[in-house]
């Protein structure tokens, strides 16, 4: 399945910062280190030179990827008309059948972060939640079987704010 081209403003800014950092700070620093290592003579056994060239290739690959991806992405800002329903960028508080509470934020595939409970809009849970309202129930097929959740709250600002 193709990745969505949606991203939050916060996610786009983070990718843009990474691109600028790699291009303006990291790459010039590594290029200088490679140049200094090359000046030391025999390059075939020069670990700094070999590692530096490898790191430059990694940086260049990431810079190319970020440059292309940022051109494809569409920043989605929350619309006041979305209040009360789950759409892209929403924080959703769910209660599972076993009464455990889960909070997820629906974000683009370039910014999902399991540790923060940010899930991709392309994930099965997110797809099941789109368009739903508080008190709606959603069922999601998981590797462990069918999971059912009840929507307790929806917000377009973090519940901690």
TrEMBL record:
Residues 82-156 form the Transcription elongation factor GreA/GreB C-terminal domain. GO terms for biological process: DNA-templated transcription elongation; regulation of DNA-templated transcription elongation. The keyword Transcription regulation applies. InterPro entries: GreA/GreB_C_sf (IPR036953), TF_GreA/GreB_CS (IPR018151), Tscrpt_elong_fac_GreA/B (IPR028624), Tscrpt_elong_fac_GreA/B_C (IPR001437), Tscrpt_elong_fac_GreA/B_fam (IPR023459), Tscrpt_elong_fac_GreA/B_N (IPR022691), Tscrpt_elong_fac_GreA/B_N_sf (IPR036805), Tscrpt_elong_fac_GreB (IPR006358). Signal peptide: none annotated. One of its GO terms (molecular function) is RNA polymerase binding. It comes from the Bacteria. The keyword Ligase does not apply. Keywords: DNA-binding, Elongation factor, Protein biosynthesis, Transcription, Transcription regulation. Residues 6-75 form the Transcription elongation factor GreA/GreB N-terminal domain. Necessary for efficient RNA polymerase transcription elongation past template-encoded arresting sites. The arresting sites in DNA have the property of trapping a certain fraction of elongating RNA polymerases that pass through, resulting in locked ternary complexes. Cleavage of the nascent transcript by cleavage factors such as GreA or GreB allows the resumption of elongation from the new 3'terminus. GreB releases sequences of up to 9 nucleotides in length. HAMAP family: GreA_GreB, GreB. Belongs to the GreA/GreB family. GreB subfamily. This is Transcription elongation factor GreB. It comes from Moellerella wisconsensis ATCC 35017.
């Amino acid at each position: 399945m193709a990745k969505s081209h949606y991203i939050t403003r916060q996610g786009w800014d983070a990718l843009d910062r990474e691109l600028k950092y790699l291009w303006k700070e990291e790459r010039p620093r590594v290029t200088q280190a490679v140049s200094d290592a090359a000046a030391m003579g025999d390059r075939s056994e020069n670990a700094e030179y070999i590692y530096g060239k490898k790191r430059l290739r990694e940086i260049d690959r990431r810079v190319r990827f970020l440059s292309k991806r940022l051109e494809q992405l569409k920043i989605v800002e929350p619309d006041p008309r979305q209040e009360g329903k789950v759409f892209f960028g929403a924080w959703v508080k769910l209660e599972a059948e076993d009464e455990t509470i889960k909070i997820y934020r629906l974000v683009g595939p370039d910014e999902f972060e399991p540790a923060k409970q940010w899930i991709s809009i392309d994930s099965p849970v997110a797809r099941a939640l789109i368009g739903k309202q508080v008190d709606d129930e959603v069922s999601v097929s998981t590797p462990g079987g069918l999971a059912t959740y009840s929507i307790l709250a929806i917000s377009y600002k973090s519940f901690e704010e």
